[in-house]
Design brief:
There is one protein chain. This protein has 429 residues and is mostly helical. It folds into two domains: 160 residues, Up-down Bundle (Growth Hormone, Chain: A), CATH 1.20.1250.20; 201 residues, Growth Hormone, Chain: A (Up-down Bundle). The chain has 20 helices and no strands. The longest helix is centred in the middle third of the chain and has 30 residues. It is globular, with a radius of gyration of 22 Å. The protein starts with a helix and ends in a 15-residue tail after the last helix.
């Protein structure tokens, strides 16, 4: 909800503060700048002090600054406060790490992609809320309402356990046993006989471990893939909003000008001001539903083709569909292309999240995810300037850039040195 919020609020703040294209793009960029800086920091802290603590702090931080955003008196304050929200959101990845460290090997490839259902639910909820709240009581109330789920989640944090793998890695076997016994009681099962045995590694969360010869090539290629996937993912989201806001469907602008004449002073203004119509929200909902359309196929690909080949195929298809956006088509055709693009970029994220969480050992898993998330945000920071600025100047040029990056990622995924399908999680380096 927090990430998708910018896409549905952008047209309103553009009109309210008379913003130019680069100023609208800067809002998203600063959100991801905050994410990028804190992603590494929180990853380091999570490997040293625990996943649960960092996850709780990040939710408190994100909810607090998100609520403050609704009271922004000016554009500068809005940008600053959304950047602070980005800092908080960067710690949410620890939730995926906790889940990864509890799931057995044979279930990870099935259960982790199903998390996408909740990302989808948040996206649909914020679009649905925006369609009702934006035209009636305004974007400030939309942000206030959108912060409610985060506050509710904080209240149920006591039901989320600390990772037993993390506790074992720091020598806190007692806490790990208590967590496992609690899980056994909930599942009406019994603990297996024996004791937990694992060597304690004091060297946890060190950046240089990512550069160890065993993981160097993997780390560099993962960073390239994360950067490219985020660039494509947020490019699709922002380009969808931009295509709708500016009505860039083939021939539509020409026909409108031809039939009615160009009476709008807004089209001549550097501060383009056009609010979403109900049909635009409907189109965004349809394209967003696409995020789960390929989930069953994605799960099959991950578990039978493996993580590397599956990711390579979906990245290649993403490149193709970006180019297809340039095909002269109807509104329905555009929705179809956006639908497939959202499905593909979502599948890409599913796969790389799973791969990154699986490939690194427990002592550096959070840091590996944190640095990858940080590099990912560089792609996300650049995406607004391509989707919201370059696309206005050169539509085909922007699409070719998105497509080219996806091709590089497809090659990088195919040549990853380690396949994690069926591989047990590593505890130490």
């Amino acid at each position: 909800m927090e990430i998708m919020l910018i896409a549905v609020v952008s047209p309103l703040i553009r009109c309210e503060w008379q913003l130019q294209d680069w100023q609208v793009a800067l809002v998203t960029t600063m959100v991801f700048f905050g994410y990028m800086i804190f992603s590494i920091l929180l990853g380091l802290l999570a490997d040293r002090y625990g996943r649960w603590k960092i996850l709780l702090i990040s939710f408190l931080w994100g909810a607090y600054f998100s609520l403050l955003t609704s009271f922004s008196p000016s554009y500068i304050w809005f940008v600053f406060l959304r950047a602070m929200v980005g800092c908080g959101v960067s710690g949410h990845a620890q939730g995926l790490i906790i889940k990864t460290e509890f799931l057995p090997t044979k279930y990870r490839g099935y259960m982790l992609p199903l998390s996408q259902v909740f990302w989808l639910a948040g996206s649909l909820l914020i679009i649905g809320l925006a369609s009702v709240v934006n035209p009636t009581i305004g974007w400030r109330w939309l942000i206030r309402i959108a912060s409610i789920p985060g506050v509710i989640l904080i209240l149920v944090f006591k039901f989320i356990p600390e990772s037993a793998r993390f506790n074992v890695s720091i020598g806190n076997n007692k806490a790990a046993i208590e967590t496992l016994e609690r899980i056994a009681r909930i599942n009406r099962s019994v603990m297996p006989e024996g004791i937990l045995v694992e060597s304690v590694n004091e060297r946890r969360g060190r950046f240089k471990d990512l550069m160890h010869p065993k993981y160097l090539r993997t780390t560099l290629q993962i960073w390239i893939i994360w950067l490219g996937i985020a660039f494509a993912y947020y490019g699709v989201i922002l380009a969808s909003a931009e295509l709708l806001e500016r009505d860039l469907i083939c021939g539509s602008q020409a026909s409108v000008t031809e039939e009615f004449g160009d009476h709008s002073q807004e089209s001549q203004s550097p501060c383009h001001c056009r609010l979403f119509a109900p049909s635009d929200y409907q189109t965004m909902i349809i394209s967003t539903i696409g995020e789960i359309a390929l989930n069953p196929l994605n799960i099959v690909g991950i578990n039978f083709l493996g993580r590397r080949l599956s990711l390579s195929i979906t990245m290649g298809c993403t490149a193709l569909f970006f180019l297809l956006l340039n095909v002269c088509t109807t509104s329905a055709g555009l929705i179809g292309f956006l639908f497939m693009l959202r499905a593909l970029v979502s599948a890409n994220f599913n796969t790389i999240y799973i791969y990154t969480a699986e490939v690194y050992p427990t002592t550096m898993r959070a840091l590996g995810m944190g640095t990858s998330g940080s590099l990912c945000r560089i792609g996300a920071m650049v995406a607004p300037f391509i989707a919201q600025v370059l696309m206005s100047a050169s539509f085909l040029g922007a699409l070719c850039l998105f497509s080219g990056v996806c091709i590089v990622c497809a090659i990088s995924a195919f040549t990853l040195p380690i396949e994690t399908k069926g591989r047990a999680l590593q505890q130490n380096k």
